[in-house]
Amino acid sequence: MLDQVTKVHDESRQGEAFAPVATDDQTYRKKFYIESYGCAMNFNDSEIVASILNQEGFGATRNVEEANLILLNTCSIREKAEQTVRKRLTEFRRIKKETPGLLIGVLGCMAERLKTKLLEEEKLVDMVVGPDAYRSLPSLIAEAETGQKSVNVLLSREETYGDISPVRLDNNGVSSFVSIMRGCNNMCTFCVVPFTRGRERSRDAVSIVREAAELFENGYREVTLLGQNVDSYYWTSDDGSETVTFAQLLEKVALINPLLRVRFSTSHPKDITDEVLYTMAKHENICNYIHLPVQSGSNRILQLMNRTYTREWYMKKVERIREILPGCGLSTDIICGFCSETEEEHQETMDIMRFAAYDLAYMYFYSERPGTLAQRRYQDDIPEDVKKRRLAEVVELHRQQSEKSMKNDVGKTFKVLVEGTSKRSEEHLFGRNDQNKVIVFPRENFKKGEYVMVKVESCTSGTLIGNAVQ
């Protein structure tokens, strides 16, 4: 698994139950309860599942006791997530014994890998449904209602769910995710995604732009375009008359309305192009923020990871970003203690951190995940205490860099999109600037979804504090 100090997953949302849509006045004959774990892609998938179930007469509930169908949308990236899901399934099994007809299903990335265990050996679930099989949910539910165990974990080369309008999770009503592609072709040796989500395929550009436009019309003011590697997005229309690259897609979404702020995640260093950077520079509403995972500063380790770039390539890419987009926020992922990593190679990672001066970093120590290429090819031979010590050194360096980055913003004025009330004070609002930094400022008469110019007066290690200016 990848254990991390600063979580790439939003920990506050792990296990979050899907809420009924407040504006939905339809009467449903059955209720479904769904919990989501993992990355933003999984939460977006839960919205697709909700849309499919709504069409089948199922309405969402956050009360598990009144559900006819319980679903867990799962993640295989970390062992902790799997342990949590197993614990929840055991709890749900107790409810099932007291509730005739209740069905329990596992969706997502754990489905394919653990289908036999969950269905036959441990008998924890009635259904196992992979990320590309959500359209088959109605037939799988019908099959499970007869007492049969139902499974569909087939991966697809075509499925993008592009024609399904997701039912939005009960979020802040200001920012939302739009999936632009599924799967991944990169085959990084530490990663299980290509095996759980399949080969890369791009969703049609027309449906992406339509979904983003609908979000704007419904009051949303920020969309994040999601993909395992957004820079390799490439779509061609059925008749071959139109081809859309990621840079062109970015522009199409940005042109919906200047008030719609656009973000994207995640970028692969080998694929992000000057065309993307110049498109970002051209449109004020495309945020100057790039998540560019480096993973390691050692060329040998990068080769073992199958990252297909060198440290020199990566550093030149960072220089190019700084050249075309001065002041662009930059974040990264770092893995400490990958198979056979030496102290010198660990120091190379520290060096590249000093060079890039990341605003935000997601930092892990490595231990292998079942089914990955690294598990098959390499020995996980770095002692855990060494991994943890190296991680602690990386975390401390990043803390220093982050603190410096925050202090550098004191005295500057930023355009902030208001996302809601500050957790610490009802009298303050919070939002993020272009560079994805959280800024807190007095409420005054400002409202959620508005843009406010805020001058930064002070900061903490993770938050900028300021006042609105005219």
UniProtKB/TrEMBL annotation:
Major subcellular site: cytoplasm
Annotated [4Fe-4S] cluster 1 binding lies at 39, 75, 109
Q: Which Pfam families match?
A: Radical_SAM, TRAM, UPF0004
Spell out the reaction equation it catalyses.
N(6)-dimethylallyladenosine(37) in tRNA + (sulfur carrier)-SH + AH2 + 2 S-adenosyl-L-methionine = 2-methylsulfanyl-N(6)-dimethylallyladenosine(37) in tRNA + (sulfur carrier)-H + 5'-deoxyadenosine + L-methionine + A + S-adenosyl-L-homocysteine + 2 H(+)
Q: What's the Enzyme Commission number for this chain?
A: 2.8.4.3
Which CDD domains does its entry note?
Answer: Radical_SAM
Span of domain MTTase N-terminal:
30-146
Please list the cofactors this protein needs. [4Fe-4S] cluster
Against Gene3D superfamilies, the record matches this protein to: Methylthiotransferase, N-terminal domain (3.40.50.12160), tm_1862 like domain (3.80.30.20)
Start and end of every Radical SAM core domain? 170-404
Instruction: Return the broad EC class.
Output: transferase
Query: Which GO MF terms are attached to this record?
Result: 4 iron, 4 sulfur cluster binding; metal ion binding; tRNA-2-methylthio-N(6)-dimethylallyladenosine(37) synthase activity
Query: Its GO CC terms?
Result: cytosol
TRAM domain residues: 407-470
Listed InterPro entries? Elp3/MiaA/NifB-like_rSAM, Methylthiotransferase, Methylthiotransferase_CS, Methylthiotransferase_N, Methylthiotransferase_N_sf, MiaB_methiolase, rSAM, rSAM_horseshoe
Where in or outside the cell?
Cytoplasm
List residues binding [4Fe-4S] cluster 2.
Answer: 184, 188, 191
- Keyword annotations of the record: 4Fe-4S, Cytoplasm, Iron, Iron-sulfur, Metal-binding, S-adenosyl-L-methionine, Transferase, tRNA processing
Q: Which HAMAP family match?
A: tRNA_metthiotr_MiaB
How does this protein assemble? Answer: Monomer.
Q: What does this protein do?
A: Catalyzes the methylthiolation of N6-(dimethylallyl)adenosine (i(6)A), leading to the formation of 2-methylthio-N6-(dimethylallyl)adenosine (ms(2)i(6)A) at position 37 in tRNAs that read codons beginning with uridine.
User: To which protein family does this belong?
Assistant: Belongs to the methylthiotransferase family. MiaB subfamily.
Q: What is this protein called?
A: tRNA-2-methylthio-N(6)-dimethylallyladenosine synthase
Tell me the gene name.
Answer: miaB
